[in-house]
TrEMBL record:
Keyword terms of this UniProt record: DNA-binding, Phosphoprotein, Transcription, Transcription regulation
Residue ranges occupied by any HTH luxR-type domain in the UniProt entry: 144-214
SMART domains with a match to the protein in the record: HTH_LUXR, REC
Protein name per the record: DNA-binding response regulator
GO molecular function, one term: DNA binding
Length: 214
């Protein structure tokens, strides 16, 4: 797998590259700003781009805008957006346009190499990835309004895993239950939250996040 890393902090960028290389992933390019990132993607289309949200010159949303352009021009390239801070609005906005092959993780997840590599693999395969803390925050926000009160504790757990972008099989493995059991949980969740059933994973994520982000 070929990955381009875009991060303006040299220490963070080189650290990420070292982690990826140690995991057997080819680092196809390094960028410290959005224009360099876009040029590198044009020169040699990678499998995945890892990009910080905030990059020079304004350190606002250059990375996010670059991610959108990459997804527009190179739909086969997965993009994993990294953020120093929890920004639920940014996460929802990022996924609303190109849910397939797009992910949003907090930088603190980098310490868990296995989780980082798993997220890269999922966006490379066209899946969606949402940081668990974003999901937990959205779930908590909706619960204060009483919207999720009808869900059982296990259904809320399944909902959180769904919103992270995990398939029914992945949820079953995480919870140690059978696939049919997860299907039942999912049907109950859709019914209780009045969400239309949809077998396409990334659309399911969008539906759940749209509900949670209201």
């Amino acid at each position: 797998m070929r990955v381009i890393v875009a991060e303006d902090s040299v220490i963070m960028r080189e650290g990420l590259c070292r982690l990826l290389e140690d995991a057997g992933i080819t680092v196809a390019g390094r960028a410290g700003d959005a224009p360099t990132l876009l040029a590198q993607v044009e020169r040699g289309e990678p499998d995945v781009v890892l990009t910080d949200i905030r990059m020079p010159p304004t350190h606002t949303d250059e990375g996010l805008r670059a991610a959108r352009e990459i997804r527009d021009r190179h739909p086969g390239v997965g993009v994993l957006i990294l953020s120093q801070y929890l920004e639920t609005t940014t996460a929802l906005r990022a996924l609303s346009r190109h849910p397939r092959g797009l992910g949003y993780l907090l930088k603190e997840r980098i310490a868990d190499v296995g989780q980082l590599i798993e997220a890269i693999g999922r966006v490379a395969a066209g899946g969606s990835v949402i940081d668990p803390q974003v999901v937990a925050t959205l779930l908590g926000r909706r619960r204060t309004a009483g919207a999720l009160d009808e869900l059982t504790a296990r259904e809320r757990t399944v909902l959180g895993l769904m919103a992270e972008g995990r398939s029914n099989d992945a949820i079953a493995q995480r919870l140690g239950v059978g696939g049919k059991t997860v299907e039942t949980y999912v049907r109950n969740i859709f019914m209780k939250l009045c969400l239309e059933q949809n077998l396409v994973d990334h659309r399911r994520v969008l539906a759940v996040l749209a509900y949670l982000g209201q």
